[in-house]
Amino acid sequence: MATVQSTKLILKIVAGKTSTGAQSYVQRTFANITPTLSDEELYAIGSKLGALQAGLVSEVRRQDVKALGETA
Q1: What mean pLDDT is predicted for residues 41-53?
Q2: Of 11, 34, 46, 50, which is the most exposed, with the fewest CB atoms less than 10 Å away?
Q3: Range of the domain at 58
């Protein structure tokens, strides 16, 4: 079984509207997150960080990186 090597927290934030009226978004990425955090713990952290942003948070994402195979 592969183990998580690194984790990132990604916030998708509403930045405004495009010239056509569609929503535009920006992403804020926080690297070096402890991989052992549960999804609930990471969501709570993302919610608190999202409250500090200028725009509304539309999504909180977790990105895990795993090595699939033999590692040296």
Answers
A1: 96
A2: 34
A3: 4-65
